[in-house]
Specification:
By secondary structure, this protein is α/β, with parallel strands linked by helices. It has 2 domains: 298 residues, QueA-like; 107 residues, no CATH class. It contains 13 helices and 19 strands. The strands form 3 sheets. The protein has a 10-stranded mixed beta sheet with strand order 2-1-19-18-15-3-13-14-17-16, with helices on one face. Strands 8-9-10-7-6-5-11 form a 7-stranded antiparallel beta sheet. A hairpin with an 8-residue loop joins strand 8 and strand 9. The longest helix has 14 residues.
Amino acid sequence: MTDIFNSDNNSLIDEVEAIRIEDFDYPLPDERIARHPLEVRDSCRLLVADSAGNPRHHVFSDLPDLLPAGALMIANETRVINARMKFRRPSGAVIEVFILEPSSPNDYVLAFAQRERCQWVCMVGNLKKWKEEKLVRQIEVRGIDTPVHLSVRLIPLADDEVRSASRRVEFSWDNPSATFADIVEAAGNIPIPPYLKRDSEESDLSDYQTVYSRVEGSVAAPTAGLHFTPALFGRLEEKGVEQAKVTLHVGAGTFQPVKSEEIGDHPMHTETIAVERGVIESIVRALEEDRDIVAVGTTSVRTIESLPLFGYLSLQGRDVSNPDEMHVEQWTAYRQDFRSRNTLALLRALLDAMAQKKMDFLTGSTAIMIAPGFKWRIASRLITNFHQPQSTLLLLVGSFLGMMPADAAGKGERLPLWRRLYDEALGMDYRFLSYGDACLFTGKK
């Protein structure tokens, strides 16, 4: 495995793109994948590792005792929507429409507030059997006495929306008393991960949401947050752990396997971000005071590690008030011009740009690829679940943990810490993936 953790030259992007995904594989027996969560959210096991990778075994309810007073903990308050909808053609063929992101209007809040029609980019199952006709189904919407008729039809994709397995779909319904949020709740099913290999159940409606979920828009849960309870948040507050929330709407791309041999050939998915000005100010204060910043899950990581890049974009003349211009591309974080910039200076530039526009809220998007060679700027601790082999999320964890020292045999080989810790978890019968156990990792300074 190529050691690029200390690389800081102009060829860094080439070196990162050449990382082989087979180096992030591990054997995951099917019986180790948790099909359902534990009855008590914070009773799951917690694998704790310091910056040297030394493992300790706890339960998640121990978390307040494991974080220092004064730490800033940041979680993603996105809410999973009932994104899977099924329609039946006159022939009997079932068409599944999986909504991904709003197209018209292209703002999540506005799209969910529509009362007659809207368009979304969707993945469509059984697409070959869906011709040009409009598909209609009757649904019962909470708070409306009469049935609502929901229609869908395919719309040609714009050039900038073209992607594999996705189409633009127009939704329309015959009762303006219902918002699209009402329609989704009534017509859809919760989109549990495909690797659970089961249909969604009534219990998933609550189990697959964090207790603090608030902003609708995700098609997958930020699963590290599933372990928290209101009581645990209260104990963290008593400990003196500062708490903040951000929003990143998790897309279906989070389940997309890396099919290319090298990660440079893998197109990273884009996800929408929203962050309050006060959260950015809290991050600045924590960095100034050298306090720990704890990211709850990889989605929170992608959000907060994108903030310096938004500051960088503002310094390049991008309009911070235009979400289309606030887009972090896949490899920008590895460019030497960005890596040489000071983190606090970038965040202050972002705050200044927001102040000039009188903005209390930043909205943008990120396709950031976090892999070995990434320069971590914000998160110093990471709460996360165990991730799939050969996934971009495992690349992120591998980057955060870094490498083990040369092995005791004296061969000089440096091995990734993630593999040592995952082997430890497998050997200790931890439960893996979305409904599984959790980790608390400390990054290298």
